[in-house]
Design goal:
The complex is a heterodimer of chains A (about 70) and B (about 290). Chain A is elongated and about 50 Å long. The termini of chain A are close together. Chain A is built from 2 helices and no strands. Chain B is of the alpha+beta class and about 290 residues long. Chain B folds into 2 domains: about 170 residues, Four Helix Bundle (Hemerythrin (Met), subunit A) (Up-down Bundle), CATH 1.20.120.80; about 90 residues, no CATH class. Chain B has 9 helices and 5 strands. Chain B has a 5-stranded antiparallel beta sheet with strand order 4-3-2-1-5. The longest helix of chain B is centred in the middle third of the chain and has 31 residues. Classes of the chains: A mainly alpha (about 70), B alpha+beta (about 290). The interface between A and B is medium-sized, with 25 and 28 residues.
């Protein structure tokens, strides 16, 4: 696997981590009731969306530049 | 002598040699970290109630370090893409950003996270003496709430020489909030943040302590696995940073001018290693910080 392929795999795992961190924050917020965790959940879900957007942008850019083979 | 297949692919494998080499190396790394992660999981599953710390690590700091590593993976792949497009200047800047991310990650680990633990004290109380320290442990309260028992008193050790001097008969500890106010319902839950010790001093007879150390690998299986895995990961980050610094120095420009594809291949191999190191952290973070 090339670097671009591994990078896409890495971004997928990072997105999953961001989603699970967000879910964890929601869970802790329900248990603890501290607003800091709600902010963390929102930030994590925003990061997950940003990572998906970046992943799509990266794939398209590599394809356009013919670096994806 | 010219080393063959550093740029062109081998006819039999369809790959250039360094790429096969790095993937074989990464396969061995998977086995190394896989073994350590398995050990961690089994140690945790087998830990008696009250013997495995939870929510001790600083989640915001860990999250920041995770974001830094993800960012560094983005910059390293952009550095490689810049080389492929023959834009050396852009490569130089992306590589510098990658190096800085690695250095920040290591600095946070070595200057903030680890030293904080080296300064923290924990003493496990002998089962027969637990009743004597009920005011610090609050085990009647935990039993009422159906929570695991508290077996350890933690905080800032005021008389550190007590650890090595047998003539000192007790530990003087600036108690952590959980031991300063053990019946407080807020202490029933893990914090996931750094909570400094209180001003309240607790005195613990050495004779009542099963084992007492700072938060070092000798403290518990938890800290042994924490320092082993994060330490080994940190060494990998350091190795990656050193390789990137070499590829960022003017010597790389000479190679670029002579054969840009050769430098691009070197960066790709180093980038694969870096992505693996970052991927390991993607597993370390939830395992140690969140769960």
């Amino acid at each position: 696997m090339s670097l671009k392929g591994f990078h896409i795999v890495f971004i997928v795992f990072s997105t999953l981590l961001a989603l699970s961190t967000g879910a964890w924050c929601v869970w802790v917020d329900l248990v603890e009731g501290a607003p800091v965790y709600l902010a963390g959940a929102i930030a994590s879900f925003v990061c997950a969306i940003a990572l998906v957007v970046y992943g799509v942008w990266f794939y398209r850019k590599m394809k356009r530049l013919r670096i994806i083979t | 002598m010219e080393i063959p297949y550093t740029i062109s692919t081998r006819p039999d494998t369809g790959l250039w040699n360094a790429k096969i080499g790095i993937w074989l190396f990464l396969a061995s790394e998977v086995m190394l970290f896989g073994g350590l992660f398995s050990a961690y999981v089994f140690l945790r599953l087998d830990a008696p109630p009250g013997m495995w710390p939870h929510g001790l690590l600083n989640v915001p700091v860990g999250t920041m370090n995770t974001a830094i590593l993800i960012m560094s993976s983005v910059t390293v792949v952009l550095a490689w893409a810049a080389l492929k497009m023959r834009k050396y200047r852009a490569y130089w800047w992306y590589m510098l950003a990658t190096i800085l991310c690695g250095v920040i990650f290591l600095t946070v680990k070595l200057v903030y996270e680890w030293p904080q633990k080296f300064e923290h004290f924990g003493g496990y109380i002998k089962p027969e003496a637990l009743e004597k320290y009920e005011q610090y442990l609050g085990n009647k309260h935990t039993a009422e709430k159906n929570l695991p028992p508290r077996l350890e008193i933690t905080g800032h050790l005021h008389n550190r020489e007590a650890l090595s001097n047998p003539n000192i008969k007790e530990y003087e500890v600036g108690l952590d909030p959980v031991n300063a106010d053990p019946a407080n319902p807020a202490m029933d839950r893990p914090h996931f943040l750094y909570v400094p010790p209180t001003e309240k001093i607790g005195k613990i007879d050495k004779a009542d302590v099963e084992r007492a150390t700072m938060f070092l690998p000798t403290h518990s299986a938890y800290f042994a696995s924490y320092f082993t895995i994060t330490g080994l990961h940190g060494l990998h980050v350091l190795a990656g940073v050193l390789v990137f610094i070499y590829m960022w120095l003017p010597v790389s420009k000479k190679l670029y001018q002579r054969n840009p594809e050769h430098l691009a291949n070197r960066v790709e191999v180093a980038g694969l290693f870096w992505h693996f190191v970052d991927l390991v952290w993607i597993f370390v973070f939830p395992l140690f910080y969140l769960l």
